[in-house]
Structures are given as C-alpha cells and as structure tokens.
Amino acid sequence: MSSILKSLSDSFLSPSRVVRHLRHYPTLLRPYHPPSPKPQPRRLFSLRHSIRARYASLPYTIRLPVSTFLTLITWFPVLWFLHNKVFQLMLVNGPSMYPFLNTDHYTSKRSDIVAVKMWKARYDVRRGDVVVFRSPLDPEKVVLKRVIAVEGDVVQTRVPYPVDKQEIAIGHVWVEGEHPEHSRWSYDSNSYGA
Question: What predicted TM-score, i.e. pTM, was given to this entire model?
C-alpha cells in the first residue's frame, strides 16, 4: 500500500486524495491472488490408475487367478481360430487303423494322438493320405481313414459293398481303414460308398 501511495504522490496527487480515490476501487486495496486453475475433467486414465491401484492392493492368492483368467480371455479368439481353422489335436480310438495307429489297441486302453491339418484341407488330397471327416453313418462322430482312390480312379471294393468295382466320381474319394480283419472292424467307403 505504501508503495502505491508513494508512486501516486510522486505523480502530483496528495495522499488524502489518493486514499479517498482507492476507497472507490476496493480491489486495489486487497492483496493479489492469482486465479486458481480450473479443475480438469476426470479422465479415463485416472479411473484406470485407481483400478490398477486397487488390484495391486489385493493379496497374491486373488491376483494370480484373476490375471490368469484375463490372459486366457485375451488369447481365446486366437486359440479358437487355431483350433478350428489351422490345426487340431485328436485322439484316435478303436482298431480301424490298426496297425498304423493304436498299435497296442488289444493290450491297453491308450489312444494315439494325431495332429490334423485343417488349413485348406479339402484341396490337394492324394492317394495314401490319412484324412479326418464326419461319418456319413453318424454325423456326431469324426472318423479317420486312409485315402485309397481319388476322383477318376477305379477301385476294387470289399465286402459289404454291393459291386466288385467302383469308379470314383468327381469331387469324391474312396477311404478305408487298415485293420487286417477289415469288414469286421472298419466302417468306411465299403459301407457307405465314395
């Protein structure tokens, strides 16, 4: 205040006149305070930080299952795509492909595990390939057989097929199991055709 009065008195105003003049402008008599900053709107990252802080305060026995669950959820679409479109692991049950698969079928209950390529599986099927498909007799079952003949081939059939020779139509294949006692253990193209 004294510095203001001194500066005003130097400018040819009397001190009484200056005080009277300052009464009409009360803001000049108060000390200066800078305006407070406006409060920032709450942002999502602050919510994220509070969630992380609460999560970090949880005991380890709770955090471990939660983090495992979240990891599995994030990987689920990738695993689903790989399982349904790229490759799949399957168990082989039954003696149909003996002795190639399930070599100890008669002595143990163990099953062989095969990796099935599913990426563009319908293309490039050749004689001798082992293929997996839904059984025409029971669509709930998936069967595994060896391709004996492809389209355009003539195949010598086995019992119980009604004719001795069959020409394979376009877009079809002839599949059979490999068991020595074939007709007893294998339901294949000899049972349901090409």
Answer: 0.58
Q: What is the C-alpha separation between 175 and 187, in angstroms, rounded? A: 10
Q: What confidence tens digit (pLDDT) does each residue in 164-193 have?
A: 899 999 989 999 887 767 656 677 888 887
| CA–CA distances in Å: residue 41 to residues 34, 45, 138 | 21, 11, 63
Q: What letter does residue 168 receive in the DSSP assignment?
A: P
Two tokens, residue 1: 């205040």
Q: Could you tell me the two tokens for 174? A: 């002839």
Paired tokens of 20: 């009277």
DSSP 92: E
Among 135, 170, 134, residue whose Cα is nearest residue 152? 170
Q: Is 130 exposed, middle or buried (0-12, 13-18, 19+ CB in 10 A)?
A: middle
In order of 20, 102, 112, 191, 192, the CA distances from 108 in angstroms are: 112, 9, 11, 28, 30
- What totals of helices (H) and strands (E) does the chain contain, helices first? 6, 7
Mind telling me the catalytic residues?
A: 96, 145
Which pairing describes strands 154-156 and 165-167: parallel, antiparallel, or unpaired? antiparallel
